[in-house]
Amino acid sequence: MDRIALLSQVLEQNPTDAFARYGLAMAYVAEGKPEEALNQFTTLTAHNPDYVPAYQMSAQTLAKLGRSDEAIERLKSGLEAAARTGNQHAASEMQGMLDELGG
Length: 103
What we know:
Shape: globular
Number of strands: 0
Oligomer: single chain
Distance between the termini: 41 Å
């Protein structure tokens, strides 16, 4: 069974499993399916608003698609999540990306 099928099966059992949802999003990124990945990142942050890596990776995905305004908004939300969780490393990386995008 491929990774996407396996993770989808896990999520059928537990739709709010943050680790599986993030893994599924990253699998879609790896397979060149950015829209599917973005849908998974959005679902993930809706269920787990403090899952900081989802904001960072979704912003990177949006930036690669030339959707800078959306990437900036995602980074701002990610910075808020990083502040809530005390994740200074991710905050620093996201702030750097935000600066590059002109946010």
